[in-house]
# Entry
Amino acid sequence: MIASDARAAFDALVRLCPPPADPPPAVDWTQAERALDTALPADYKQLVETYGAGIFDETIWLLAPGSAYDGPVLV
# Structure
């Protein structure tokens, strides 16, 4: 679960930049966290589950475990 301030920021992002019509591929978070040897933040997981991997405005890279996106990879 994400904190209320992060939730409000996420809701604002969704209003400003609606997610893709087709949901992104599911992520195996257990495997990703095991491979990274660390837990990933809930707000990051929500962002990836909502938008998938890619680039916001050719500026901010959103990396996702197991992504087929042609660019940097997380795991």
